[in-house]
Specification:
90 residues, mainly alpha, Potassium Channel Kv1.1, Chain A, 2 domains, two-stranded antiparallel ribbon, 5 helices, 11% strand
Length: 90
């Protein structure tokens, strides 16, 4: 549970920074999380979103998604061998 609270707090800081149009310091936890979001570094899952010619591939991180959502946790833990090979369009 403490890990979830830590990740939730970091996400709130990043969202607040975006909404307030402030930029967190690059070496802060929020700054590093924002860099992961912007760069897609070390992303281990990708989502294909959009329709027609407007499709876009969005990188994400399983660990963050699992802690934020029981649905993602169930998807990723169901069968990791098949989950890595599966592709889902939203």
């Amino acid at each position: 549970m403490p890990t979830f609270l830590f990740l939730a707090a970091i996400c709130l800081i990043v969202v607040a920074s975006i909404l307030l149009e402030t930029v967190p310091k690059a070496n802060s936890s929020a700054g590093r999380m924002l860099n992961l979001l912007d760069s897609g570094d070390r992303a281990d899952v990708h989502f294909l979103v959009g329709e027609g010619d407007e499709k876009k591939l969005l990188p994400a991180h399983k660990a963050i998604l699992e802690k934020a959502s029981g649905v993602f946790e169930g998807m990723f833990r169901f069968d990791e061998a098949n989950a890595k090979a599966a592709a889902t369009e939203f």
